[in-house]
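User: Need the bound-state model for pyridoxal-5'-phosphate:
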Amino acid sequence: MKLKKNIATSENGFIFNPATGDSFSSNPIAAEILQMMKDGKSSSQIKAELLDKYHVEELQLERDWDDWMSQLKDANLLEQ
Amino acid sequence: MDKHTKKPLVIAVTGLNAIDSPGPGVAVIRALREGLDRELRIIGFSYESLEPGIYMHDIVDKTYQIPYPSAGIKALFERLNYIHAEEGMEIIIPNFDAELYNFIRLSDRLAEIGIRTFLPNIEQLEARDKINLLKFGKKHKFHVPEDKVINKAEELNKLAEDFGYPLVVKGKYYEAIIAYTIEQAHKAFYKLSAKWGHPIIVQQFINGTEINIAALGDGEGNAISIIPMRKLYITDKGKAWAGITLEDQELIDLANHFVKATKWKGGFELEIMKDAKGHLYIMEVNPRFPAWIYLTAGAGQNQPATLVKMALGEKVAPFTKYEVGKIFIRYSWDHITDVKEFQHLSAYGEL
Amino acid sequence: MITQKLIYERPFIKKMNAGLMNKFGTRTEFQALKYIDGVSVKSLLAEYGSPVFVLSEKQIRRNYQNAVRSFKTRYPKVQFAWSYKTNYINAVCNVFHQEGSWAEVVSGFEYRKALGNGVPGNKIIFNGPDKHPEDILLAIKNDSLLHIDHFDELYSLIELCDTQDKKPRVAIRVNMDTGVYPIWDRFGFNYENGQAWNAITKIIGSGKLKLVGLHCHIGTYMLATSAYAIAASKLCELATNCKNQLHTPIQYLDLGGGFPSTNTLRGAYLPGVDTVPSVDDFAEAITSTILAHGFKQDELPLLILESGRVLIDDAGYLLGTVLANKRLSDGRRATIMDFGVNILFTAFWYEHKISPAQDFTHHSEDMVLYGPLCMNIDVVRESVNLPLLNRGDNVVVHKVGAYNMTQWMQFISMRPNVVMIDEKGNPHLIRKAETLGYLEMQEETPTHLKSINL
Ligand SMILES: Cc1ncc(COP(=O)(O)O)c(C=O)c1O
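Assistant: Bound-state model below.
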């Protein structure tokens, strides 16, 4: 589950997929996760950091993580 | 006032979608920039992120997205207040049919915060609506196509006798089918009622030459400018590709009569059909400037600039002449911008 | 050691495209509604469960008083009659009756409900095509106003009178072309084709009934004030003919209900709050028509109105809870609520405004709102832009006071509690949630089906 290499992200949370021409906006936590993914962190690493930083139950995060992955997949942002 | 005053005149304009079925905004702005003898700051109002005018920075100084008309008056007013605090707008010129209702309803409150508009009132807006046009025409003795609102397919037989073929069978909201036989009319009736529900509007078909008139009323019964135009060539969507100004006193008289009868305030367009006997039928009344409005500037009666002068309270005498035989030819132009601009507008709603 | 963690929101990206996205559009829906008449939404949910209907007594009274004022400042003789079918919970009816409203009913049970609430018989209007003989006899005994719907009813009423020593007070319901389609011509007697006049002459000719009024109810959620002007003028015309040709002056004209609430119709382009005419506009159209008709001052008929939805829709709220979030196969987000079309029947024709009941961040998403029923038609909103909602979050549906608490279905789940907040801000339970016991109270199981053995 890796982000495609050429995905461009900006500080403001904009995402641009040069392969398809699509642009996306994201909420701050999504931008943060994207940055961590770009830095090559694994999903368990990222989840641990989020649990540490945010007020969220592990179960909730786990569920949202699945949804997050499906959003990235729908958006064509993941490595096949 | 004059061009030596420091502060530019701030005018907001909608309809920046200069695409294949264009909105009038960009044409209005060009006319304003040419016709007003003072510095302007043009604020664009956009609904969608790819309206070309947004990215044409020598046409539009700054664009703000505004809520769709369906979001209601309150949402629009809140957004306008925000923009007003940033820009100090003096005039707003709305250019879409669908947004007029909201802007008209807001015009008093806009005036209270110092923003002027020059618009018809709600009664005028509604009188010229498709479903009221026949009544309106009868009242003021205009030729308009006969129509009848029906709920039962059996009524078609009688209408075919009254109107003759072909019949125009129209859905409640959208779509029209031209029927040449009773079978076709029945089929159209069932198709459109299944799709849009009842009632169905059946209209007399008028055959003839299509002519458009752009005009400007002062709200007291005087037409300040009238420019008739015939389309020379149309796109497959029926939009003008090229058109030419005409000289025809009957057309001018018709528009004058219209303004006198309605006391229309602001710009509007009459879509006219001239039949074989020379009768001028009003097919539709658009309650705002048409997309080809720049031709009025080209022909010597700059309607958008004149509207601004009137909105500012200037008394303007009616124009008396214009150049006949002026042609507009619409062309497309690939404007280059960067994805950053698109993203910025999409995310922040301004550019 | 306690570390302060940041508030969590689920991660979320949104495609930027040319058309669909416009978060500047629907901002107005984005205000948390945390209090209703000063009572916290969360406390109502905690005490009465979820979902729960909440009615504001203050708003009902305000609506009623405003409507009465709109008419009374324009016309000297006005009477409202509360249309029971709109909401016939007794507490609601009695708010209207305390304010001075009569009752308008369309069935035997509604009629008895009105009597039970203490409405004097002569202040009950009995409408509708389905009045049973025993209901009619009761209504005659109580001197109620019988509004005749069709010829069969008229003939059987004349027959019933043979057994009575009282002359019932009656009116006819008239249907007509008011320029609004479809015409509701299945109710009452048609004006244009002479049926109405025919019925009037039969009533007077019979010598057994006392024709006191003329009634119409031209439709519901009517947007054209002009339709009421036309209706009023046609009733006036009939009334004048009754007096001049049949020497029977008409005491009242009943213009029915039909004024719209400010809900937005499904598929409407502009929101209801901006487009529907006000009660003032309707009052102006109706009263100016009657006043201009040429009645003598002392012969001006009483004007009766049977308004329903406009008086109560915006006084009602439905509070509910998010059960789950889903992503549909096309990527759209779906949120499942604990209420559906079973109790929010009006979701079939309104795009109800929905507010979150708690604070949220400024990110929002387009979503479908589903109810909990196991059926595809259970859609609360086809497409609504709302802040990101999590399981357990609460929402408030606005303007649900009319017709939901009478047309609701007991299907899959039970009907919930209904609470009314009084003018001092105290909530009262006015209808208890249904229970299994309540549901089975009416059932009879034959002996041979009483036991099973699995
Ligand atoms: C006879 C009659 N009167 C009054 C009403 C109340 O109508 P509304 O809620 O549209 O005001 C109805 C509703 O159907 C009705 O049938």
